[in-house]
Amino acid sequence: MRQDHLDGLVTFLAVAEEKGFSNAAVKLGISPSAVSQSIRALEQRLGLVLFNRTTRSVCLTEIGERYLERVQPALEQLSNASQELGREANHPSGQLRINVPRAAYLIVLQPILRRFMAAYPEINLEIRVENHLVDIVGQGFDAGIRFGNAVEKDMVALAIGPPLRAQIIASPEYIMQFGEPEHPRDLLQHDCISFRHSSSGQIERWEFDNGKEKIDLQVKGRLILNDSEILVRSALDGLGIAYMINGYIEPFIQQGRLLLLLEAWSPEIPHLHLYYPDRRRVPAKLRAFIDFLRNERREAQPDDLIL
Fold first, then answer.
1. Cα–Cα distance between 119 and 170 in angstroms, integer?
2. Is 60 inside any structural domain?
3. Quick check: 275 and 157 in contact, CB under 8 A?
4. What are 8-56's pLDDT values in tens digits?
5. For residue 307, is it within any domain?
6. How many domains are there within the chain?
7. Which of 3, 23, 249, 295 lies in disulfide reach of 18, CB 3.0 to 4.6 Å?
8. Does 305 fall in a domain?
């Protein structure tokens, strides 16, 4: 359909409803001559006479009545669609699609999902858990969460979640049986649970930093995994020593089910970031999610707000 096929339809509907050019002009906020010109152009384009005109009145012709029956429902649907979408632009609703790695889901999303969904019942969430970086625009996601050093430069990125450190963990049962490492290099004599990155296929190296010395180790062990939650579960089961960022493991530490090892050597790592394409056109559903994360961090750590 060509764009000019729609020209004059709103004016036609106004004249038909108001039964006059002057009243239609008032309704549309334009001059009577502009109304007359628009109707004349529409009639010429269609090759039809839509109105009978006299000095006293304007009324639809028979063909004009039939034309009105056809176009009025379509125009009403267009108007309703515009109004509904306009409301959505300012009201948090619709489907919010977010792409995250497993660690981000465990650390940032899992703790707040129930409260967020209760606060915004008209927002439906689709969360896709993928450890490799994806094109969120090309795949139709509203936003993604990744570590800050993995976010593309053309994205708007906001730091979220707690300050992160890489920590060494093991179950009390494992430590009772095999002893506690006193230095990072002691890990080379232990059964360590390795993590293989799905995106690169590389096994993660363990980095340590005590402020004076940095150490980078390729540990060894009988178990290699590619899932953060299963990594923690395996440590809980006493299968070895694991390397995991904080934010998910705290409850297990508080319960005494996991022990923190080599705490003085835990290095800081980049914050998780929520990122999205365009700051100027943030839909209400995404803005609500951003604000909710901001408020969560403010309440959790008022002196350490990082969002």
1. 37
2. yes
3. yes
4. 888 998 999 888 898 999 988 899 899 999 999 998 988 989 999 887 7
5. no
6. 3
7. 23
8. no
